[in-house]
Amino acid sequence: MNGTTPVIYAQDLVKEFGPVRALDNLNLNIAPGEVHGYLGPNGAGKSVTMRVLLGLLRPDSGTIRLFGQDPWKDAVELHRRLAYVPGDVELWPNLTGGEVIDMFLRLRSNAGEANFSPKKRDELIERFDLDPRKKTRTYSKGNRQKVALISALAADVDLLLLDEPTAGLDPLMEVVFQEVITEAKTEGKSVLLSSHILAQVEALSDRLSIIRAGHIVESGTLSELRHMTRTTIEVETAQPTTPLHGLSFIHDMHAEGERTVFEVDGDHVGEVMDSLSGLGIRSIVAHPPTLEQLLMRHYGDDLSSRGVSASTTKKVS
Ligand SMILES: Nc1ncnc2c1ncn2[C@@H]1O[C@H](COP(=O)(O)OP(=O)(O)O)[C@@H](O)[C@H]1O
Ligand SMILES: [Mg+2]
Q: Do residues 158 and 7 make contact, with C-beta atoms less than 8 angstroms apart?
């Protein structure tokens, strides 16, 4: 680890709720300044991980350290250094958005000393296009998320724990989100960003971990995980696509007239594009893989046997 203390270090974490093993020997490492995508289907254990990191849940066994400290014992110190955005933000309905943001920010002031920049707060309110004068009871889910995001991003912290923070945001705001996270990274902040949608985290993440049934099944940079992903390509070409037939990195190819549909392994997309352009592309559509496709392809059979399916992963809370 180059001698630096990891921002997050989790080793063999186990957390059970009765018969449910929510975390099953989970290992996670995040270096300072890293944006880490935390990917997993619903019910995989992302939020439980966040709650252990926050010191809200105590693991049954294993080691968990934030900045080398124990979130269960050192919560007061640690919470000065981190900000958290939950997926489902609840606010004081009778306060305005602006009042709530200021309250969040003042709550984390250090011995009466504010540790946030009002300028940055106002700039974020503007960029997220939030009306801070309205009572939060009138806010949509997306607006409540904006309040939590603005409060977290305006705070002077070292670590952002973001649990599916963009679920209620429209595509335009998703772009703003990508920008502000990139800026936070430039400021040296570390980010743990969870999602069940691959496309939401892949652009931002230095590294990714994929959690399934409480266990990390893959971890690495996007290019290290590229071998796992397949892009679906629909193409119309002037010449037949026969040169592509039978290549080991092309799968499920269907050709009909000028139109060909196939899947290509993520680390061979460039090569295939070169071949296709030699065949005279008339039109082309590429679909990135979804997390579900990725997990089903690699762990498909195992998924059902371990109870990770839509019907069994609903939250009990
Ligand atoms: N407080 C709780 N009591 C019982 N089971 C829980 C509790 N919190 C989470 N779980 C279970 O733990 C598993 C992981 O949940 P969670 O971390 O919320 O998943 P997600 O990846 O969707 O955030 C699920 O099976 C969920 O039902
Ligand atoms: Mg969750």
A: yes
Whether residue 52 contacts residue 75, with contact meaning beta carbons closer than 8 Å, is answered with: no
Question: Residues 107, 121: one domain?
Answer: yes
Taking alpha carbons only, the member of 83, 96, 30, 89 closest to residue 54 is 83
* Ligand 1 mean position, distance from CA 278 (Å): 50
Looking at the fold, whether 117 and 141 belong to one and the same domain comes out as yes
Q: How many CB atoms lie within 10 A of CB 311?
A: 6
Give the pLDDT of residue 209. 95
User: Residue 243 belongs to what domain range?
Assistant: 230-287
Which atom of ligand 1 is found nearest the CA of 18? 4
Q: What is the pTM of this model?
A: 0.85
3-state class (DSSP) for residue 283: strand
At 241-271, the pLDDT tens digits run 999 998 999 999 999 999 999 999 888 999 9
Ligand 1 mean position to 47 CA, how many Å?
7
254/188 same-domain check: no
DSSP at 96: B
Question: 212-223 burial, b if ≥16 CB within 10 A, otherwise e?
Answer: bbbbbbbbeebe
Residues 166, 191, single domain; the answer is yes
Q: Considering every ligand atom shown, identify the ligand nearest to the alpha carbon of residue 49 and give its number.
A: 1
Alpha helices in the chain (DSSP H): 46-53, 75-79, 97-107, 118-127, 141-154, 171-186, 198-202, 222-225, 269-277, 291-305
* pLDDT tens readout for residues 21-72: 999 999 999 999 999 999 999 999 999 999 999 999 999 999 999 999 999 9
